[in-house]
Amino acid sequence: MTNDAKHMLLIxxxxxxxxxxxxIITMHMPLATIDSFTKAEDALEYIQQKLLLQQALPDIxxxxxxxxxxxxxxxxxxxxxxxxxxxxxxxxxxxTSSVYHQDKLKAEKFSIVKKLFVKPFSEYDLAxxxxx
Amino acid sequence: xxxxxxxxxxSFEAAAQKDSVTLNxxxxxxxxxxxxxxxxxxxxxxAENLTINIIPGDQNHPPVxxxxxxxxxFGVTGSxxxxxxxxxxxxVSIGAIFQHSAYxxxxxRKANINFPSDLIGKRIMASDDQxxxxxxxxxxxxxxxxxSLKVIAxxxxxxxxxxxxxxxxxxxISVEPDQLRQNGFQVATIxxxxxxxxxxxxxxxxxxxxxxxxxxxxxxxxxxxxxxxxYAMAHPGEIADYILTLxxxxxxxxxxxxxxxxxxxxxxxxxxxxxxxxxxNEGRWQHILTTYQSLGLIDKKTDLDKFIYxxxxxxxxxxxxxxxxxxxxxxxxxxxxxxxxFSLHKAVKHRTFELEREVKExxxxxxxxxxxxxxxxxxxxxxxxxxxxxxxxxxxxxLSDSIAQNLGYPPGSFPTDIESYKNMVHPNDLPTxxxxxxxxxxxxxxxxxxxxxxxTKRNEWKWFLMISRVLKRDLQKNxxxxxxxxxxxxxxxxxxxELSNLSTTLLKRNNELQQFAYITSxxxxxxxxxxxxxSRLFKKEELGEHNxxxxxxxxxxxxxxxxxxxxxxxxxxxxxxxxxxxxxxDLEQELSAVVTSISEMVVxxxxxxxxxxxxxxxxxxxxxxHSIFLNLLTxxxxxxxxxxxxxxxxxxxxxxxxxxxKIADNGMGIDLEKYGDKIFSLFQRxxxxxxxxxxxxxxxxxxxxxxxxxxxxxxAKNEGTVFTITIPKKEFHT
Lengths: 132, 734
What we know:
Number of helices of chain B: 25
CATH topology of chain A: Rossmann fold
Oligomer: heterodimer
Number of strands of chain B: 22
CATH topology of the largest domain in chain B: D-Maltodextrin-Binding Protein, domain 2
Distance between the termini of chain B: 88 Å
Number of helices of chain A: 5
CATH superfamily of chain A: Response regulator
Strand order of the largest sheet of chain A: 2-1-3-4-5
Structural class of chain B: alpha+beta
Largest sheet of chain A: 5 strands, parallel
Strand order of the largest sheet of chain B: 2-1-3-10-4
CATH superfamily of the largest domain in chain B: Periplasmic binding protein-like II
CATH architecture of chain A: 3-Layer(aba) Sandwich
Number of domains of chain A: 1
Largest sheet of chain B: 5 strands, mixed
CATH class of the largest domain in chain B: Alpha Beta
Radius of gyration of chain A: 14 Å
Helix content of chain A: 40-55%
CATH class of chain A: Alpha Beta
Order of helices and strands of chain A: EHEHEHEHEH
Strand content of chain B: 15-25%
CATH architecture of the largest domain in chain B: 3-Layer(aba) Sandwich
Number of strands of chain A: 5
Largest interface: A-B, 20 and 24 residues
Strand content of chain A: 15-25%
Shape of chain B: rod-shaped
Distance between the termini of chain A: 14 Å
């Protein structure tokens, strides 16, 4: 596919899913840097840390919607509270095991969200993600 | 009408003149002439357009000479007038006032002169122009020669009789005897009438010229004079007072009493009420004439022709015209009456008919009203409606027996004051009720329509629908009386509450269930998605032959599980289909997208799809249209007849209110008689041996209906199936 050294952030409470996604991405993009979190709040802290240290933010965030404690929506809201200028190069893709119409409408309200995918994550989804 | 004008001018011309007339009396002012004073005083002359000048008479002003000379128009004198007439003087008696002559012979009672014969050789004061002629007739009739009497000139001084200068004197029965008595002089009188000499007394006269030239004037004067006489005789006191004011009356020591005596005596001569005022009988005049003739005082050839005034004679022309006129008018009136009668008859007939109809109509309405009342009463009773009324001024409240019964009270044993009523209202309902009643009394609320609870006799609560309106307001618009109904809605209200509770519970349950289904499907779907991923990564070729077959089966299972979960999710998201954004969808384009997504299926089954989109573009949610095409197309393919090629025809059209989509196939068909009502239910499958989860039709039916459309099916086994979908136009017009 491509050898771009993209920085990807996976956020899903299902660790198997994180593993599988990482498998699929590394299969097609061996140079990608992949960080994964099972708790959205940890991922948020990670981003805040990056902002604090003025380090580059991930190019792509793959965000699950349904998670305990902090779900995908809450994570997106928390991102909104941060300095959005710093996210100009970051794309968020939501992915969920079951897509409800309301979720699609909700997703449209966040400009940072580019698309909503249905699991299982496939190489086609990956291609669409990095094509933009 | 011309005739009418002529008659009028003839009749009323003279009446319009204003005339001044002079009346010469026979003597000085006294009651003897009361009628003329009365006519003047009471305006009877004025009413006839006459101005009257009344001159008293005496030796220097004898009335007959005055009238004949033209110094007066009318005069008053006695029946001696006939002598003047007989002498050829043109006089006419126009009315007799005194039906009997007032002349009498007065003497001292002491002189014992009681009969005419007693006067022989006696000195008697007499005056030719004051009754002596007719008194002569008395003597002659009694066989007393006139030269046996010593006639001396009348001095018109009562004292001459009193002091014996004369033995007797002529006078008026109504005047002198009383004057003498007043002076304490007892008198005796001899009246001619007692001896068969009955002459007219005072009469009203004028000249023949006057009667002929001025008949109207004569008539007007007569009329007014006689009217005056009638008044005078009826009101002697009033006229006496007036006479006392006339010149020369008081000077003669005349008192009211003497005037009233005179009036009383005159009544006997005038006979008011008995004889018509002014009446003259030709027979009596004839008697007077004959008497004079027999005395040799009047020539035998004299007749009364021109002496007696006859209104009829002089006025005959006028009367004839009046008669003619009256007849004409009468004829005219008769004609008018006849015509009027005719139309009246018609009108009466018409009106009678109308009245009859009105009466019938009223009767009918009365009947209807009664019927309505009965119906109303029946309805009120049947419906358990209780009438109530609150008189705010007195604080009294009226509640009909129906309410009492509903609350378990015996009829009539109900509170009648507002406070007791308030105590019956449930404390939770009372504030709202009182608040609304206050608003209503102030006029800010037209009608109260509240459900309230009232306490029954057993201390239970019963629901009533309470309706109230203001019956009466005072000038300040404050309510004086509220009235309305209480309707027992206890059963209904309790059911409503029950239902409301039930639906609340159901709603809660439904939400819980949905939440449960949502979580379940989501939680199930996550591991399934993982399984799919894992199976994709799995290296099948690294397995042995047996395991490879098993793995293929595992994959199929995972795939089925995934599809089922997808459908369940679809169903769970159905309730929001109405919120979905609509778009203008090109049907051809959308269909080809669907066909592409299942191209493998279409190609391998050699399905032939034809389209006829009369309406090429629809405003509809894209996802749902996609779902409809996909489901119905896959259904058609799944349930095709294996032995013949599958034809699917998809068409669009419209009627007035709907867009219509039709998907027709020549497949197996569905036995609608057997499954008709279940076809769109969840998890229903009608064919064995075919892969299906039984959710497709359920999903699209719900989607279509959530957008106010319908889906219907026509099918026959082994012939095919037609699905017809309607999409309301208005919903999607932008």
